[in-house]
Specification:
Elements (H helix, E strand, L loop, with lengths): L1 H5 L3 H10 L9 E2 L2 E2 L3 H8 L6 H17 L1
Antiparallel strand pairs: 1-2
Length: 69
């Protein structure tokens, strides 16, 4: 269901789960707009149990840990 609602393949969603974060396009902005809004879709599908803000924070944390390595 997540893949269909996000307009991606089931394999893409499996990859998100495997790496533990959504793609960096969730935090990359072009002209003030996010490239993707998968986090918003997931928040809606989970009725707020998982929030867009939480998912975006995980991306920032993953980026920071990769940079520190």
């Amino acid at each position: 269901m997540i893949a269909r609602k996000c307009g991606v393949t089931p394999g893409a969603v499996r990859h998100w789960f495997a790496v533990g974060v959504l793609p960096s396009t969730e935090i990359t902005e072009i002209r003030g707009q996010r490239q993707t809004a998968y986090g918003e879709v997931i928040e809606s599908l989970t009725n707020g149990a998982v929030t867009d803000a939480e998912l975006r924070e995980e991306i920032y944390a993953a980026r920071a840990s990769r940079s520190a390595a």
